[in-house]
Amino acid sequence: MNKFELTPAFFIGHKEIDADHAALVSLLNKMVDAYMAEDLTACHDKWQQFCHKLEIHFATEEAIMRQFEFRESAGHEEEHQEIIKIAKSLGEGCTTLGGWETCLFTMRDSLLSLILKRDLKFAEHLVTIGYNRV
Ligand SMILES: [Fe+2]
Asked: Which residues form the Hemerythrin-like domain (predicted)?
């Protein structure tokens, strides 16, 4: 299974947010390693760590967005809650390698882009207010 990659197109331009996104991708890649090693316990552990990190990241990010008076964040927090729910439900009850495979594919093919894409508007905001250059 391919590893996840955080491409420069998804860099937000805020140190803490970008570091969190990189940490989330790294945890998913550790989950891929666990899957490749057919280590079900490690799959479960890495998934749990990912969900925990995701909750912390979203809370941090919401605070940062408020600090930068990012008005378009309306709906962002509800979306975050929804993503956490999905991430948790994907791994819940996974007891087989096939189950973890489906979980990983869904994380890679849909959840990760959901997590990252919405933040691109915040990246634009940081440029608009002069915090970042293009
Ligand atoms: Fe984010």
From this structure: 15-91
Q: What is the CATH number of the domain that holds 44?
A: 1.20.120.50
* Confidence class for position 73, pLDDT limits 50, 70, 90: low
Q: Per the structure, how many domains does the chain have? A: 1
Question: Residue 61's domain spans which residues?
Answer: 14-128
If you measure from the C-alpha of residue 12 to the centroid of ligand 1, how many angstroms do you get, rounded to a whole number? Answer: 9
Residue 113 Cα to ligand 1 middle (Å): 10
Note the pLDDT tens digit of each residue in 2-42: 899 899 999 999 999 999 999 999 999 999 999 999 999 99
In a domain, 61, yes or no: yes
